[in-house]
């Protein structure tokens, strides 16, 4: 089978999986649903054809194992997730699983065993659509799911624990899904980029160096509502004018570092009448950077700006922290090897951060992780218009072959 034929087959499998959905007419696959089960069964069939032993762990992750030359050999893990957001595309997560299967298929066709095991994992929940909590599958494997998570409920009041049971898993044995890091050489996650950088650089693939951390806050500005005709400009404490200054200050901080992004995504003005001076504004901040230190510095700078603008304008501006999460650095050694594999395939090994979260974040608690991004059209994802090119998929699979080959060399 040629590289192109292999990529065409992978894409056809993505199409086949797109049929399994919780909602007619669009792709939606939440944790524990019949659609996810059907998708898993299809993937399990392809894993078996590729010579893998297939099992499901206690949370319901699907794991294919291609044994090595020695029974006790460590494993190299490749994978992604089979669940999706609502009205999703057909590649997010799935591409990583099927690329792993494609690599093993080629080894199996050549009747080749390696000095290590190759495992392909299809996580049962990454997006958190049903329980509003991300990485449930990979956190189970990393051993970082706690009791509290099992009692999360979906919109129908079903707990995660009950859903695991209904899905054929075992919530009481969730600990058993945790893997011993000594079993593994590392994890590589091939994934669509979900951004426009590779397309802009005309590159089929890229190497992720870090998955960004973020700060989320809500800022409230309290001024004084008043009559738009009778209160002179000098006497006003206009919450919106102060908030407008803040929005531009946030943009300025975002622009101060090429790796930073800062977004005000929600903005509410009260009371919201054309003849009333705005008395109160609520806005949100989403601040991200691949490194924690510059992000935290920017966050502090913005906190000070909120206080300074509030004081100068005579309004009460308050910062409410919503959530902060640290960035994940991909493993430098494994990432260098992945970059070398990209070079071997004749592609410039461009490094870039991931602005979105991935299973690699959860697995980084356990294993050395690396991520390979595949160009996607227009950077569009979480959307039925998600699109990848056959030629790029062929390159991604070749890069994984080369990475596995390099690991064999050093065994
Ligand atoms: Zn994904």
Please provide a written account of the structure.
- By secondary structure, this protein is an alpha+beta fold.
- The chain has two domains: 3-211 and 328-409, Aminopeptidase; 213-325, Alpha-Beta Plaits (2-Layer Sandwich), CATH 3.30.70.360.
- Helix content is 36%, strand content 22%.
- The strands form three sheets. Strands 1, 2, 3, 4, 5, 6, 14, 15 and 16 form a nine-stranded mixed beta sheet that branches.
- It is elongated, with a radius of gyration of 24 Å.
- The mean pLDDT is 96.
- Zinc ion (ZN) binds next to loops.
Observed structural traits:
5-stranded antiparallel β-sheet; 9-stranded mixed β-sheet; 16 strands; alpha+beta; elongated; Alpha-Beta Plaits; Aminopeptidase; binds zinc ion; about 400 residues
